[in-house]
Amino acid sequence: xxxxxxxxxxxxxxxxxxxxxxxxxxxxxxxxxxxxxxxxxxxxxxxxxxxxxxxxxxxxxxxxxxxxxxxxxxxxxxxxxxxxxxxxxxxxxxxxxxxxxxxxxxxxxxxxxxxxxxxxxxxxxxxxxxxxxxxxxxxxxxxxxxxxxxxxxxxxxxxxxxxxxxxxxxxxxxxxxxxxxxxxxxxxxxxxxxxxxxxxxxxxxxxxxxxxxxxxxxxxxxxxxxxxxxxxxxxxxxxxxxxxxxxxxxxxxxxxxxxxxxxxxxxxxxxxxxxxxxxxxxxxxxxxxxxxxxxxxxxxxxxxxxxxxxxxxxxxxxxxxxxxxxxxxxxxxxxxxxxxxxxxxxxxxxxxxxxxxxxxxxxxxxxxxxxxxxxxxxxxxxxxxxxxxxxxxxxxxxxxxxxxxxxxxxxxxxxxxxxxxxxxxxxxxxxxxxxxxxxxxxxxxxxxxxxxxxxxxxxxxxxxxxxxxxxxxxxxxxxxxxxxxxxxxxxxxx
Length: 494
Description:
The structure is a single chain. With 494 residues, this protein is an alpha/beta fold. Helices cover 28% and strands 20% of the residues. The protein has helices spanning 133-145, 169-183, 203-206, 228-244, 273-286, 303-307, 313-332, 343-347, 353-360, 393-403, 431-437, 455-470, 476-479; strands at 3-4, 12-15, 24-27, 30-33, 43-45, 54-57, 60-65, 74-75, 80-81, 106-111, 117-118, 122-127, 155-158, 188-195, 217-221, 249-252, 257-262, 290-293, 369-373, 383-387, 407-412, 424-428, 444-445. The strands form six sheets. Strands 19-20-18-17-21-22-23 form a seven-stranded parallel β-sheet, sandwiched between helices. The chain has a four-stranded antiparallel β-sheet with strand order 1-2-5-8, with no helix packed on it. A four-stranded parallel β-sheet has the order 13-12-14-15, sandwiched between helices. The longest helix has 20 residues, at 313-332. The protein is globular. The chain starts with a strand and ends in a 15-residue tail after the last helix. The mean pLDDT is 96.
Protein backbone atom coordinates (compact mmCIF):
# COMPACT_ATOMS: atom_id res chain seq x y z
CA UNK A 1 0.00 0.00 0.00
CA UNK A 2 1.40 3.35 -1.11
CA UNK A 3 -1.06 5.74 0.52
CA UNK A 4 -4.04 5.76 2.83
CA UNK A 5 -7.32 7.68 2.87
CA UNK A 6 -8.20 7.81 6.55
CA UNK A 7 -11.91 8.76 6.24
CA UNK A 8 -14.38 8.55 3.39
CA UNK A 9 -14.96 12.33 3.59
CA UNK A 10 -11.26 13.18 3.24
CA UNK A 11 -9.97 15.36 0.42
CA UNK A 12 -6.35 14.26 0.99
CA UNK A 13 -4.45 10.98 1.22
CA UNK A 14 -1.30 10.32 3.26
CA UNK A 15 1.76 8.76 1.63
CA UNK A 16 2.98 5.62 3.42
CA UNK A 17 6.31 5.72 1.60
CA UNK A 18 8.24 8.24 -0.49
CA UNK A 19 6.43 8.81 -3.80
CA UNK A 20 7.67 10.45 -7.00
CA UNK A 21 6.17 13.11 -9.25
CA UNK A 22 4.30 11.51 -12.15
CA UNK A 23 3.73 8.28 -10.23
CA UNK A 24 0.24 6.76 -10.41
CA UNK A 25 -1.00 5.97 -6.90
CA UNK A 26 -3.98 3.73 -6.20
CA UNK A 27 -6.29 4.98 -3.42
CA UNK A 28 -9.76 4.11 -2.17
CA UNK A 29 -10.93 7.14 -4.16
CA UNK A 30 -9.35 6.08 -7.42
CA UNK A 31 -5.96 6.43 -9.10
CA UNK A 32 -4.10 9.70 -8.61
CA UNK A 33 -1.29 11.01 -10.82
CA UNK A 34 1.09 12.88 -8.54
CA UNK A 35 2.06 16.40 -9.54
CA UNK A 36 4.85 16.61 -6.92
CA UNK A 37 7.24 14.40 -5.01
CA UNK A 38 5.49 13.32 -1.80
CA UNK A 39 7.57 12.35 1.24
CA UNK A 40 6.31 9.62 3.58
CA UNK A 41 3.75 11.04 6.02
CA UNK A 42 2.90 13.97 3.76
CA UNK A 43 -0.42 14.56 2.00
CA UNK A 44 -1.60 14.91 -1.57
CA UNK A 45 -4.95 16.11 -2.89
CA UNK A 46 -7.58 13.56 -3.92
CA UNK A 47 -9.56 16.22 -5.77
CA UNK A 48 -9.31 19.84 -6.78
CA UNK A 49 -9.62 22.09 -3.70
CA UNK A 50 -10.63 25.71 -4.24
CA UNK A 51 -8.91 28.60 -2.51
CA UNK A 52 -10.60 29.13 0.88
CA UNK A 53 -12.15 25.64 0.85
CA UNK A 54 -11.60 23.43 3.90
CA UNK A 55 -9.04 20.63 3.59
CA UNK A 56 -10.49 17.45 5.10
CA UNK A 57 -8.47 14.75 6.93
CA UNK A 58 -9.77 12.30 9.57
CA UNK A 59 -13.21 13.41 8.33
CA UNK A 60 -12.69 16.93 9.74
CA UNK A 61 -11.18 20.22 8.53
CA UNK A 62 -7.47 20.60 9.23
CA UNK A 63 -7.48 24.14 7.83
CA UNK A 64 -8.30 25.82 4.55
CA UNK A 65 -6.56 26.09 1.19
CA UNK A 66 -4.63 29.36 1.03
CA UNK A 67 -4.48 28.94 -2.74
CA UNK A 68 -6.18 26.64 -5.24
CA UNK A 69 -4.88 23.06 -4.99
CA UNK A 70 -5.05 20.60 -7.88
CA UNK A 71 -5.74 16.88 -7.69
CA UNK A 72 -2.41 15.07 -7.09
CA UNK A 73 -0.67 18.16 -5.70
CA UNK A 74 1.33 18.20 -2.46
CA UNK A 75 -0.83 19.55 0.38
CA UNK A 76 1.13 21.17 3.18
CA UNK A 77 1.95 24.41 4.96
CA UNK A 78 2.74 26.21 1.68
CA UNK A 79 -0.89 25.97 0.57
CA UNK A 80 -2.92 25.26 3.77
CA UNK A 81 -3.59 27.60 6.69
CA UNK A 82 -5.18 26.93 10.07
CA UNK A 83 -8.78 27.81 10.88
CA UNK A 84 -8.04 28.26 14.58
CA UNK A 85 -8.36 31.61 16.29
CA UNK A 86 -9.47 32.51 19.83
CA UNK A 87 -12.01 31.20 22.31
CA UNK A 88 -15.03 29.20 21.16
CA UNK A 89 -18.43 28.45 22.57
CA UNK A 90 -19.38 24.79 22.83
CA UNK A 91 -22.70 22.98 23.07
CA UNK A 92 -23.16 19.94 25.30
CA UNK A 93 -24.25 17.12 23.06
CA UNK A 94 -23.27 13.71 24.33
CA UNK A 95 -22.77 11.25 21.50
CA UNK A 96 -23.02 7.49 21.52
CA UNK A 97 -20.09 5.97 23.41
CA UNK A 98 -18.62 2.72 22.17
CA UNK A 99 -18.91 -0.42 24.26
CA UNK A 100 -15.42 -1.12 25.53
CA UNK A 101 -13.90 -4.60 25.51
CA UNK A 102 -14.09 -6.46 28.83
CA UNK A 103 -10.54 -7.56 29.47
CA UNK A 104 -9.51 -9.87 32.28
CA UNK A 105 -5.75 -9.72 32.67
CA UNK A 106 -3.37 -9.55 35.59
CA UNK A 107 0.12 -8.24 36.26
CA UNK A 108 2.66 -8.51 39.05
CA UNK A 109 2.71 -5.27 41.01
CA UNK A 110 3.51 -3.78 44.42
CA UNK A 111 0.43 -3.16 46.54
CA UNK A 112 1.02 -0.08 48.73
CA UNK A 113 -0.53 0.76 52.08
CA UNK A 114 -3.05 3.16 50.47
CA UNK A 115 -4.26 0.47 48.04
CA UNK A 116 -2.49 1.88 44.98
CA UNK A 117 -0.39 -0.54 42.97
CA UNK A 118 3.07 0.34 41.74
CA UNK A 119 4.94 -1.42 38.96
CA UNK A 120 8.39 -0.56 40.32
CA UNK A 121 9.91 -0.64 43.81
CA UNK A 122 12.47 2.15 43.69
CA UNK A 123 14.24 4.62 45.93
CA UNK A 124 13.40 8.19 44.97
CA UNK A 125 15.39 11.21 46.14
CA UNK A 126 13.43 14.46 45.66
CA UNK A 127 15.28 17.76 46.23
CA UNK A 128 13.20 20.64 47.55
CA UNK A 129 15.50 23.04 45.68
CA UNK A 130 18.06 22.95 42.87
CA UNK A 131 20.92 23.84 45.25
CA UNK A 132 21.08 20.25 46.52
CA UNK A 133 20.76 18.54 43.14
CA UNK A 134 24.34 17.29 43.23
CA UNK A 135 23.95 16.05 46.79
CA UNK A 136 20.93 14.10 45.55
CA UNK A 137 22.88 12.54 42.68
CA UNK A 138 25.76 11.65 45.02
CA UNK A 139 23.35 9.90 47.38
CA UNK A 140 21.71 8.13 44.44
CA UNK A 141 25.14 6.85 43.34
CA UNK A 142 25.78 5.55 46.85
CA UNK A 143 22.41 3.77 46.89
CA UNK A 144 23.08 2.23 43.47
CA UNK A 145 26.42 0.91 44.73
CA UNK A 146 24.52 -1.07 47.37
CA UNK A 147 21.69 -2.45 45.19
CA UNK A 148 23.33 -5.86 44.81
CA UNK A 149 22.57 -6.49 48.50
CA UNK A 150 18.90 -5.55 48.09
CA UNK A 151 17.54 -7.63 45.23
CA UNK A 152 13.93 -6.47 45.67
CA UNK A 153 14.80 -2.81 45.06
CA UNK A 154 14.46 -2.14 41.34
CA UNK A 155 16.36 1.14 40.95
CA UNK A 156 17.32 4.49 42.46
CA UNK A 157 16.41 7.92 41.06
CA UNK A 158 17.45 11.45 41.96
CA UNK A 159 14.59 13.58 40.58
CA UNK A 160 16.58 16.78 40.14
CA UNK A 161 15.07 20.03 38.87
CA UNK A 162 16.00 23.76 38.62
CA UNK A 163 13.36 25.21 40.99
CA UNK A 164 12.39 25.50 44.65
CA UNK A 165 13.64 29.02 45.41
CA UNK A 166 13.16 32.57 44.13
CA UNK A 167 9.63 31.66 43.04
CA UNK A 168 6.49 33.49 44.09
CA UNK A 169 2.80 32.75 44.60
CA UNK A 170 1.19 30.22 42.33
CA UNK A 171 4.48 29.55 40.53
CA UNK A 172 6.05 28.27 43.74
CA UNK A 173 2.86 26.40 44.68
CA UNK A 174 2.98 24.62 41.32
CA UNK A 175 6.48 23.35 42.06
CA UNK A 176 5.39 22.23 45.52
CA UNK A 177 2.29 20.41 44.27
CA UNK A 178 4.22 18.49 41.63
CA UNK A 179 7.05 17.47 43.97
CA UNK A 180 4.54 16.49 46.65
CA UNK A 181 2.54 14.41 44.16
CA UNK A 182 5.72 12.61 43.09
CA UNK A 183 6.56 11.90 46.74
CA UNK A 184 3.31 9.92 46.98
CA UNK A 185 3.94 7.86 43.84
CA UNK A 186 3.29 4.16 44.15
CA UNK A 187 6.41 3.23 42.12
CA UNK A 188 8.57 4.44 45.03
CA UNK A 189 9.20 1.99 47.84
CA UNK A 190 10.94 4.68 49.88
CA UNK A 191 11.38 8.43 49.36
CA UNK A 192 13.98 10.91 50.65
CA UNK A 193 12.92 14.58 50.66
CA UNK A 194 16.25 16.42 50.53
CA UNK A 195 16.29 20.09 51.56
CA UNK A 196 18.93 22.80 51.84
CA UNK A 197 17.49 24.93 54.66
CA UNK A 198 17.22 28.53 53.50
CA UNK A 199 15.15 28.03 50.33
CA UNK A 200 11.61 29.30 49.75
CA UNK A 201 10.49 25.69 49.54
CA UNK A 202 12.21 24.67 52.77
CA UNK A 203 11.19 21.50 54.55
CA UNK A 204 8.96 23.18 57.14
CA UNK A 205 7.00 24.86 54.34
CA UNK A 206 7.02 21.90 51.99
CA UNK A 207 5.75 19.47 54.64
CA UNK A 208 2.38 21.25 54.45
CA UNK A 209 1.99 19.71 50.97
CA UNK A 210 3.04 16.20 52.00
CA UNK A 211 1.28 13.18 53.42
CA UNK A 212 3.27 12.96 56.65
CA UNK A 213 1.52 9.71 57.59
CA UNK A 214 3.24 7.99 54.68
CA UNK A 215 5.86 5.73 56.28
CA UNK A 216 7.88 5.76 53.05
CA UNK A 217 8.90 9.42 53.56
CA UNK A 218 12.32 10.36 54.98
CA UNK A 219 13.78 13.86 55.43
CA UNK A 220 17.22 15.48 55.41
CA UNK A 221 17.97 19.20 55.78
CA UNK A 222 21.51 19.68 54.48
CA UNK A 223 22.39 22.89 56.38
CA UNK A 224 21.57 21.16 59.68
CA UNK A 225 24.24 18.49 59.14
CA UNK A 226 27.98 18.76 59.55
CA UNK A 227 28.35 16.20 56.72
CA UNK A 228 25.14 15.96 54.70
CA UNK A 229 26.54 13.13 52.59
CA UNK A 230 27.35 10.97 55.59
CA UNK A 231 23.95 11.71 57.13
CA UNK A 232 22.26 10.99 53.83
CA UNK A 233 24.02 7.64 53.45
CA UNK A 234 22.72 6.58 56.86
CA UNK A 235 19.18 7.40 55.75
CA UNK A 236 19.72 5.64 52.42
CA UNK A 237 20.75 2.48 54.30
CA UNK A 238 17.46 2.59 56.23
CA UNK A 239 15.49 3.20 53.03
CA UNK A 240 17.08 0.23 51.28
CA UNK A 241 16.07 -2.06 54.12
CA UNK A 242 12.54 -0.62 54.07
CA UNK A 243 12.03 -0.97 50.33
CA UNK A 244 13.62 -4.42 50.16
CA UNK A 245 10.78 -5.82 52.26
CA UNK A 246 8.28 -5.18 49.44
CA UNK A 247 7.26 -8.02 47.14
CA UNK A 248 5.31 -8.26 43.88
CA UNK A 249 1.90 -9.92 43.92
CA UNK A 250 -0.70 -10.75 41.29
CA UNK A 251 -3.21 -7.93 40.77
CA UNK A 252 -5.95 -7.31 38.17
CA UNK A 253 -5.41 -5.01 35.19
CA UNK A 254 -7.99 -2.68 36.78
CA UNK A 255 -5.20 -1.47 39.09
CA UNK A 256 -3.05 -0.24 36.19
CA UNK A 257 -2.82 3.47 35.40
CA UNK A 258 -1.31 4.48 32.06
CA UNK A 259 -0.34 7.88 30.65
CA UNK A 260 -0.87 8.71 26.97
CA UNK A 261 1.69 10.89 25.21
CA UNK A 262 3.05 11.68 21.75
CA UNK A 263 6.22 13.59 20.92
CA UNK A 264 8.23 14.17 17.78
CA UNK A 265 5.09 13.31 15.83
CA UNK A 266 4.92 12.79 12.08
CA UNK A 267 2.24 12.26 9.45
CA UNK A 268 1.85 8.59 10.46
CA UNK A 269 1.27 9.29 14.18
CA UNK A 270 -2.49 9.57 13.74
CA UNK A 271 -2.58 6.53 11.44
CA UNK A 272 -0.48 3.95 13.29
CA UNK A 273 0.84 4.55 16.83
CA UNK A 274 -1.81 6.87 18.26
CA UNK A 275 -4.82 4.76 17.19
CA UNK A 276 -2.94 1.71 18.49
CA UNK A 277 -2.41 3.40 21.86
CA UNK A 278 -6.11 4.35 21.83
CA UNK A 279 -7.10 0.71 21.39
CA UNK A 280 -4.88 -0.35 24.28
CA UNK A 281 -6.25 2.50 26.41
CA UNK A 282 -9.77 1.20 25.72
CA UNK A 283 -8.72 -2.28 26.86
CA UNK A 284 -7.21 -0.94 30.09
CA UNK A 285 -10.27 1.24 30.77
CA UNK A 286 -12.56 -1.63 29.79
CA UNK A 287 -10.83 -3.75 32.43
CA UNK A 288 -11.63 -1.09 35.04
CA UNK A 289 -8.24 0.64 34.84
CA UNK A 290 -7.24 4.23 34.15
CA UNK A 291 -5.66 6.20 31.36
CA UNK A 292 -4.66 9.87 31.40
CA UNK A 293 -4.18 12.11 28.36
CA UNK A 294 -2.64 15.60 28.48
CA UNK A 295 -1.10 18.01 25.90
CA UNK A 296 -4.05 20.42 25.92
CA UNK A 297 -2.82 22.62 23.02
CA UNK A 298 -2.80 19.46 20.94
CA UNK A 299 -6.50 19.08 21.53
CA UNK A 300 -7.25 22.45 19.86
CA UNK A 301 -9.27 21.71 16.74
CA UNK A 302 -10.30 18.26 17.97
CA UNK A 303 -11.72 19.21 21.37
CA UNK A 304 -15.35 18.70 20.36
CA UNK A 305 -14.64 15.00 19.82
CA UNK A 306 -13.62 14.73 23.48
CA UNK A 307 -16.46 16.94 24.72
CA UNK A 308 -18.99 14.70 22.98
CA UNK A 309 -17.69 11.82 25.09
CA UNK A 310 -17.91 13.61 28.45
CA UNK A 311 -19.46 11.41 31.15
CA UNK A 312 -21.96 14.12 32.12
CA UNK A 313 -22.58 17.86 31.95
CA UNK A 314 -20.14 18.55 34.81
CA UNK A 315 -17.28 16.80 32.98
CA UNK A 316 -18.25 18.59 29.75
CA UNK A 317 -18.02 21.96 31.52
CA UNK A 318 -14.63 21.01 33.02
CA UNK A 319 -13.40 20.04 29.53
CA UNK A 320 -14.56 23.38 28.09
CA UNK A 321 -12.73 25.19 30.91
CA UNK A 322 -9.62 23.08 30.26
CA UNK A 323 -9.55 24.15 26.60
CA UNK A 324 -10.50 27.81 26.98
CA UNK A 325 -8.30 28.42 30.02
CA UNK A 326 -5.33 27.10 28.07
CA UNK A 327 -6.19 29.35 25.14
CA UNK A 328 -6.29 32.27 27.59
CA UNK A 329 -2.86 31.21 28.84
CA UNK A 330 -1.57 31.56 25.28
CA UNK A 331 -3.28 34.93 24.84
CA UNK A 332 -1.97 36.25 28.18
CA UNK A 333 1.54 35.84 26.80
CA UNK A 334 0.66 37.46 23.48
CA UNK A 335 0.78 34.17 21.57
CA UNK A 336 -1.69 32.76 19.06
CA UNK A 337 -3.48 29.52 19.92
CA UNK A 338 -2.31 27.97 16.65
CA UNK A 339 1.44 28.32 17.41
CA UNK A 340 2.10 24.68 16.61
CA UNK A 341 3.27 22.28 15.08
CA UNK A 342 7.04 22.21 15.51
CA UNK A 343 9.57 22.22 12.64
CA UNK A 344 10.08 18.46 13.14
CA UNK A 345 6.31 17.88 12.98
CA UNK A 346 6.11 19.81 9.71
CA UNK A 347 9.05 17.93 8.22
CA UNK A 348 7.22 14.72 9.11
CA UNK A 349 4.05 15.79 7.28
CA UNK A 350 1.90 17.55 9.91
CA UNK A 351 0.59 20.80 8.42
CA UNK A 352 -1.55 22.64 11.00
CA UNK A 353 -2.45 22.34 14.66
CA UNK A 354 -5.81 20.82 13.67
CA UNK A 355 -3.92 18.18 11.67
CA UNK A 356 -1.74 17.45 14.72
CA UNK A 357 -4.63 17.49 17.21
CA UNK A 358 -6.91 15.17 15.25
CA UNK A 359 -4.06 12.66 15.20
CA UNK A 360 -3.12 13.33 18.83
CA UNK A 361 -6.55 12.64 20.36
CA UNK A 362 -6.59 9.19 18.77
CA UNK A 363 -4.57 8.12 21.83
CA UNK A 364 -7.71 8.54 23.93
CA UNK A 365 -9.49 5.70 22.12
CA UNK A 366 -13.28 5.69 22.34
CA UNK A 367 -13.88 5.70 26.11
CA UNK A 368 -16.01 8.25 27.94
CA UNK A 369 -14.11 11.13 29.52
CA UNK A 370 -14.49 10.31 33.22
CA UNK A 371 -12.69 13.29 34.76
CA UNK A 372 -10.58 16.39 34.11
CA UNK A 373 -7.51 17.05 36.29
CA UNK A 374 -5.65 20.26 36.99
CA UNK A 375 -1.85 20.36 36.74
CA UNK A 376 -0.32 18.56 39.73
CA UNK A 377 -3.63 16.95 40.73
CA UNK A 378 -3.77 13.24 41.57
CA UNK A 379 -6.06 10.80 39.75
CA UNK A 380 -9.41 10.47 41.53
CA UNK A 381 -11.48 8.47 39.01
CA UNK A 382 -10.88 5.32 37.00
CA UNK A 383 -11.44 5.56 33.26
CA UNK A 384 -10.17 8.11 30.74
CA UNK A 385 -8.95 11.34 32.36
CA UNK A 386 -7.86 14.60 30.71
CA UNK A 387 -5.01 16.45 32.43
CA UNK A 388 -4.07 20.12 32.23
CA UNK A 389 -0.60 20.48 30.75
CA UNK A 390 1.28 21.73 27.67
CA UNK A 391 2.58 19.68 24.76
CA UNK A 392 6.23 19.96 25.82
CA UNK A 393 7.50 16.41 26.29
CA UNK A 394 9.31 17.00 29.58
CA UNK A 395 6.55 19.01 31.25
CA UNK A 396 3.67 16.83 30.04
CA UNK A 397 5.36 13.52 30.95
CA UNK A 398 6.20 14.87 34.40
CA UNK A 399 2.59 15.98 34.81
CA UNK A 400 1.44 12.47 33.91
CA UNK A 401 3.85 10.93 36.42
CA UNK A 402 2.71 13.38 39.12
CA UNK A 403 -0.95 12.52 38.44
CA UNK A 404 -0.13 8.94 39.46
CA UNK A 405 0.23 6.92 36.27
CA UNK A 406 2.37 3.78 36.55
CA UNK A 407 3.81 4.05 33.05
CA UNK A 408 3.53 6.16 29.90
CA UNK A 409 2.83 5.03 26.33
CA UNK A 410 4.78 7.52 24.23
CA UNK A 411 4.36 7.53 20.44
CA UNK A 412 6.98 9.15 18.26
CA UNK A 413 7.61 9.45 14.53
CA UNK A 414 10.84 11.43 14.67
CA UNK A 415 12.31 9.70 17.73
CA UNK A 416 13.49 10.92 21.14
CA UNK A 417 15.55 9.41 23.98
CA UNK A 418 13.59 11.33 26.67
CA UNK A 419 11.97 9.42 29.54
CA UNK A 420 10.53 10.56 32.84
CA UNK A 421 10.27 9.20 36.40
CA UNK A 422 7.93 6.36 35.44
CA UNK A 423 8.63 3.69 32.79
CA UNK A 424 8.21 5.37 29.40
CA UNK A 425 7.33 2.92 26.61
CA UNK A 426 8.41 4.44 23.27
CA UNK A 427 6.29 3.41 20.30
CA UNK A 428 7.49 4.24 16.79
CA UNK A 429 4.96 5.35 14.18
CA UNK A 430 7.04 3.91 11.35
CA UNK A 431 9.26 0.87 10.88
CA UNK A 432 12.22 2.88 9.61
CA UNK A 433 12.56 4.60 12.99
CA UNK A 434 12.30 1.27 14.77
CA UNK A 435 15.01 -0.25 12.56
CA UNK A 436 17.33 2.66 13.32
CA UNK A 437 16.52 3.25 17.00
CA UNK A 438 14.93 0.02 18.25
CA UNK A 439 16.78 -1.16 21.33
CA UNK A 440 18.30 2.29 21.68
CA UNK A 441 15.31 4.62 22.00
CA UNK A 442 12.28 2.62 20.86
CA UNK A 443 10.46 -0.26 22.62
CA UNK A 444 7.67 -1.15 20.17
CA UNK A 445 6.95 -0.69 16.46
CA UNK A 446 3.48 0.46 15.40
CA UNK A 447 4.69 0.85 11.81
CA UNK A 448 3.80 -2.80 11.24
CA UNK A 449 0.21 -1.61 10.70
CA UNK A 450 1.03 -0.18 7.28
CA UNK A 451 3.02 -3.29 6.40
CA UNK A 452 0.02 -5.58 6.65
CA UNK A 453 -0.36 -6.51 10.32
CA UNK A 454 -3.85 -5.92 11.67
CA UNK A 455 -4.65 -3.47 14.45
CA UNK A 456 -6.25 -6.33 16.35
CA UNK A 457 -3.05 -8.40 16.31
CA UNK A 458 -0.80 -5.46 17.16
CA UNK A 459 -3.10 -4.30 19.96
CA UNK A 460 -2.77 -7.66 21.68
CA UNK A 461 1.01 -7.58 21.25
CA UNK A 462 1.26 -4.09 22.75
CA UNK A 463 -1.02 -5.05 25.64
CA UNK A 464 1.17 -8.10 26.28
CA UNK A 465 4.23 -5.83 26.21
CA UNK A 466 2.65 -3.42 28.70
CA UNK A 467 1.75 -6.26 31.07
CA UNK A 468 5.39 -7.42 30.92
CA UNK A 469 6.65 -3.91 31.67
CA UNK A 470 4.14 -3.58 34.51
CA UNK A 471 5.40 -6.90 35.87
CA UNK A 472 9.03 -5.79 35.93
CA UNK A 473 10.48 -5.90 32.41
CA UNK A 474 12.59 -2.78 31.92
CA UNK A 475 11.98 -0.36 29.07
CA UNK A 476 14.82 0.69 26.78
CA UNK A 477 15.12 4.03 28.57
CA UNK A 478 15.22 2.34 31.99
CA UNK A 479 18.05 0.09 30.86
CA UNK A 480 19.98 3.22 29.87
CA UNK A 481 19.17 5.10 33.06
CA UNK A 482 17.11 7.83 31.39
CA UNK A 483 14.72 9.61 33.77
CA UNK A 484 14.05 13.32 34.03
CA UNK A 485 11.41 15.62 35.45
CA UNK A 486 10.53 19.06 34.09
CA UNK A 487 8.24 21.33 36.11
CA UNK A 488 5.99 23.86 34.40
CA UNK A 489 7.08 27.40 35.31
CA UNK A 490 4.86 30.44 34.74
CA UNK A 491 5.85 33.21 37.11
CA UNK A 492 8.36 35.79 38.31
CA UNK A 493 11.84 34.74 39.40
CA UNK A 494 13.17 36.85 42.27
